[in-house]
Design the sequence.
């Protein structure tokens, strides 16, 4: 029998020294997080696991006076905890997102308590984690205690994120609106990138599409394609027009044919309503969606992701700005590798050629302290508003030449000199700027 109580009563199940998982995506259980934070004078050395999430604001347990109570261990630095970690009150666990569930399951990262955000129960008494199967599935499986918001605002999704309400130790009824992520409107430069990528995407491709202006620009350019499939980490509003028009029909996928597959969703209420009791969409444990060997079983996998900077050998940084961890690895590596193993698969890493402050993002060397998310051994297409270049099978000198050709024009001469100094005649015998 489900135990319904107030949030303040529910979080009394959390003890000092516990490891607490807090669900992410756009479904952070805010009511429970706030109640846990109110207990900070009673709690010490609670480790909070944080992953990919879009929050309404700073996490309530990250005020300076709470540093002795809550330590954040993050698998992906989200906006809600970025300041707390930067202040030294938390850290990051480097791991491909698809491999995090194994850390829970083998006890490397123990989970004592899972705080989750669920739908209302269906007729059989099952509630759904809705927009966030990702890490929640494994965390709930491994947790000693499960505390849930039973939230009228959460859609009911099919797949892995289901639990019978009687298995929940404490249930808190609420109507807590999910965070809505506005659809990014692509700029003119991003539209050029989107068009450059779309022309290389064949009919029948299985798509993994990231989040932001560039992915949405790609989606806009796919309206005339046919029989596309979707097997992605994050589902966004951007795919809705392709689903509604039948461009994405999932008819040629080998893994879950006929269904759109994702691990999490972030978008508007329109997306969440579209998901609700929709059997054509399934949400799965990120260990499954991001498994490169599962991804690769689909034909013509096309992986499209963003990055922060690239060096002349093709090393890609996507998680840090110098030494400062800005986000996390997410599924970029998993889908790049999965696409490389897929029959006819392609991966694209895209970015604007310059930062908002006018700094070059194609560099002779990565910024000191920057992390390599996609190695130069895996990089295929690099795309900026100045064009798309395929590094597959190219030597270092050829890569440098190709990358310089899509750098911002004002930086090409400088990069050309750096490439000539680094690669010598192997480079200078090629066309130079």
Sequence:
């Amino acid at each position: 029998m489900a135990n319904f109580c107030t949030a303040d009563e529910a979080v009394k199940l959390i003890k000092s020294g516990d490891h607490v998982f807090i669900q992410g995506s756009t479904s952070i259980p805010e009511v429970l997080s706030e109640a846990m934070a109110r207990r900070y004078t009673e709690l010490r050395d609670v480790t909070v696991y944080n992953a990919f999430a879009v929050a309404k604001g700073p996490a309530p347990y990250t005020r300076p006076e709470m540093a002795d109570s809550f330590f954040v261990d993050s698998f992906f630095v989200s906006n809600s905890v970025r300041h707390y970690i930067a202040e030294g009150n938390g850290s990051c666990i480097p791991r491909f997102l698809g491999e995090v569930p194994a850390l829970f399951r083998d006890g490397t990262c123990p989970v004592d308590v899972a705080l989750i955000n669920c739908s209302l129960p269906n007729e059989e008494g099952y509630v759904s984690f809705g927009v966030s199967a990702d890490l929640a599935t494994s965390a709930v499986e491994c947790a000693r205690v499960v505390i849930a918001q039973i939230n009228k605002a959460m859609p009911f999704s099919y797949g892995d994120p289901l639990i019978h309400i009687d298995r929940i130790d404490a249930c808190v009824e609420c109507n807590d609106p999910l965070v809505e992520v506005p659809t990014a409107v692509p700029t003119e430069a991003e539209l050029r990138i989107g068009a450059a990528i779309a022309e290389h995407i064949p009919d029948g491709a299985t798509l993994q599409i990231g989040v932001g202006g560039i992915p949405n620009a790609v989606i806009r350019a796919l309206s005339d394609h046919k029989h596309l499939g979707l097997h992605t980490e994050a589902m966004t509003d951007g795919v809705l027009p392709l689903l509604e028009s039948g461009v994405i029909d999932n008819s040629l996928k080998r893994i879950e044919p006929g269904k759109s597959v994702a691990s999490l969703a972030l978008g508007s209420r329109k997306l969440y309503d579209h998901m609700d009791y929709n059997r054509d969409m399934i949400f799965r444990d990120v260990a499954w969606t991001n498994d490169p060997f599962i991804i690769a079983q689909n034909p013509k996998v096309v992986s499209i992701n963003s990055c922060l900077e690239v060096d002349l050998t093709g090393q890609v940084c996507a998680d840090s700005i110098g030494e400062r961890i800005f986000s996390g690895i997410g599924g970029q590596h998993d889908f790049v590798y999965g696409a490389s193993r897929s029959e006819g698969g392609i991966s694209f890493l895209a970015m604007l050629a310059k930062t908002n402050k006018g700094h070059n993002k194609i560099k002779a060397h990565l910024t000191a302290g920057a992390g390599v998310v996609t190695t130069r051994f895996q990089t295929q297409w690099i795309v900026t508003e100045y064009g798309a270049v395929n590094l597959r099978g190219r030597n270092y000198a050829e890569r440098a030449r190709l990358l310089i050709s899509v750098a911002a024009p004002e930086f090409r001469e400088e990069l050309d000199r750096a490439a000539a100094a680094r690669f010598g005649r192997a480079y200078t015998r090629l066309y130079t700027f």
The chain has a mean pLDDT of 93. The chain has two domains: 7-174, 188-428. The first strand starts at residue 19 and ends at 22. The first helix runs from residue 7 to 10.
